[in-house]
Amino acid sequence: MLHIALLGKPNVGKSSLFNRLAKERIAITSDFSGTTRDVRTQQIDIDGRPCLLTDTGGLDESSALFGAVKTMSLSAAKKADIILYLVDGKNYPDEEDRKLFYSLVKLGKPTALVVNKADNDKDKERAWEFGSFGAEVLIPMSVSHNRGTSNLKKWLLTFLPALEEAPQIEEDEDEWDDFTEEEPEELLPEEPQDPTINIGIIGRVNVGKSSLLNALVGEERAVVSDVAGTTIDPVDESIMYNETIFNFVDTAGLRQRGRIEGIEHYALKRTQSVLERTDIALLVLDASQPFTELDERIASLVEKYELGCIIVLNKWDIAHADFKNSTEAVRDRFKFLAYAPIITVSALSKKRVAKIHDLILQVHENYARRIPTSKLNELVEEASIRHHLPSDQGKLVKIYFATQFDTCPPRIALVMNRPKAMHFSYKRYLMNRLRESFELEGTPIILIPRKRGEKDESSGA
Ligand SMILES: Nc1nc2c(ncn2[C@@H]2O[C@H](COP(=O)(O)OP(=O)(O)OP(=O)(O)O)[C@@H](O)[C@H]2O)c(=O)[nH]1
Ligand SMILES: Nc1nc2c(ncn2[C@@H]2O[C@H](COP(=O)(O)OP(=O)(O)OP(=O)(O)O)[C@@H](O)[C@H]2O)c(=O)[nH]1
Predict the structure, then answer these.
(1) Among 6, 7, 11, 72, which is best to mutate for testing ligand 1, by the most ligand atoms less than 8 A from CB?
(2) How many alpha carbons fall within 13 Å on the CB side of residue 439?
(3) Beta bridge partners of 45
């Protein structure tokens, strides 16, 4: 059974995280033998997968010197398979912390830097400050506000083998052997821990949204309303596809079409309410008609909400168009959605509609992608050697390091000396380089130039 250790200085939230993870277990928790006063180890379950969790908290004020933390952390880390190093996101990164973290990384075990107390979006964004630790995986979270725990669990699940059924039955032995031989990574790739994708079907009147919904949902309509524990908004419709719930957001309006037809204001309002709850937008365009300004305004909302996107060129059966010319026309008109794949379909005849399902899975995987820190920094370094950052009134502009601090969509902080001098075109260049190197089709990438906190001069660089 894999063993996870929670490490970090006093008061960063280790016990709180321990309790949260332990509370969500499914199996009966028992105190693990060898429990000492300071180190608690329990068997827990993460989504039905058992593991051991050790909390190294409990250092009292007198022993709360950094040396004690270090000794305890190193000894717990040596026994563990996976290391979670917690820091307090309300504080600035601390050089001692960084050094300890570095010595833990050198143990060569999967190690995540968990930036706790990121209670709100502003705190979460500040988590990039800890990018100077050079962690391969940086996860901002707030135990007390229950934010980011699913990201943490998702990361942990990539290491925990799926052992939903214990091998009690003798006959299952062969199957069991096959099962355990697989790499954990293959069992659970980059899939979301909560396998629901919220999908918004948007577009102006009469482009074929309702027809597309029917074609996508088909016979399986509302299958998952029976699935225990899934709460579905009555205005939504869901299907199960490859063990993932596709939840089509706010389809009620599409079912009662014709009622408020033609009102531009309504179209935009509905689009906004849909997009607020959406991960992936299916932007439906009518390939048999010229694109309109309303198409453009609706499309621009996808950019505003920073969503994954697939452009569906519908009515292809009557478009009499050439694929190359049509896609060029889309690219020309919807420049800000250059990242979105284009698919031509006929919702009426259902031609190629089935391909949209796999495309949704792929785009969502990209939307949730976490780029390993070392690969990200290699790329940024190489890109800036190939094309130097333009100087700022003769002063050198430098990127110290890059750190991805969020997913859905990927958000990357570029920590630099003169963030204001980062030109839009250089950002675009970096984004293009990222898209060339990593699978990011269909997702926006958010690059945020930042300057390090004043109290942080000693670290990084
Ligand atoms: N704002 C905020 N406070 C938190 C969060 N998580 C924990 N805390 C608080 O931080 C304090 C320390 O939490 P603990 O879980 O006891 O921290 P610990 O790392 O186990 O501390 P030691 O047992 O001393 O090693 C408590 O007052 C928690 O309520 C969080 O996400 N946000
Ligand atoms: N030829 C053809 N007609 C289609 C296709 N998809 C939809 N239509 C037709 O286009 C018209 C509008 O389709 P709807 O699905 O109602 O469009 P909508 O976007 O939901 O429309 P509103 O609810 O009014 O916004 C209907 O007459 C459909 O039969 C298609 O792929 N090919």
Answers:
(1) 11
(2) 10
(3) 50
pTM of the model: 0.73
**Paired sense of beta strands 40-46 and 3-8, if any:** unpaired
Instruction: Report whether 131 contacts 92 (CB < 8 A).
Output: no
| Residue/partner pairs of 395-400 with CB below 8 Å, 24 or more apart | 395/421, 397/421, 397/422, 400/132, 400/452, 400/460, 400/461
Residue of 202, 204, 206 to test ligand 2 pocket, by largest number of atoms within 8 Å of CB: 206
For 337-384, write each residue's pLDDT tens digit: 999 999 999 999 999 999 999 999 999 999 999 998 889 999 999 999
pLDDT tens-digit series, residues 281-337? 999 999 999 999 999 999 999 999 999 999 999 999 999 889 999 999 999 999 999
Beta strands per DSSP E along 265-352 = 280-286, 308-314, 342-344
CA of 328 to the centre of ligand 2 (A): 23
Report yes or no: 447 and 431 within 8 Å, Cβ to Cβ: yes
Domains, in order of start, for the chain: 3-157 (3.40.50.300), 196-367 (3.40.50.300), 373-456 (3.30.300.20)
Q: How far is the CA of 207 from the centre of ligand 2 (A)?
A: 5
Reduced to 3 states (helix: H, G, I; strand: E, B; else coil), residue 31 is: strand
Of 307, 433, 361, nearest to 190 by C-alpha is 361
Residue of 66, 80, 53 lying closest to 8 (CA atoms):
66
d(CA 339, CA 409): 12
User: How many whole angstroms from 291 Cα to the centroid of ligand 1?
Assistant: 54
Is the ipTM higher than 0.90? The answer is no
The gap between the terminal CA atoms of the chain, to the nearest Å, is 39
- Sequence-separated (6 or more) residues with CB below 8 Å from residue 49: 157, 160, 161, 162, 163, 164
Query: Hey, how many other C-beta atoms are within 10 angstroms of the C-beta on 373?
Result: 20
Cβ atoms < 10 Å from Cβ of 121: 11
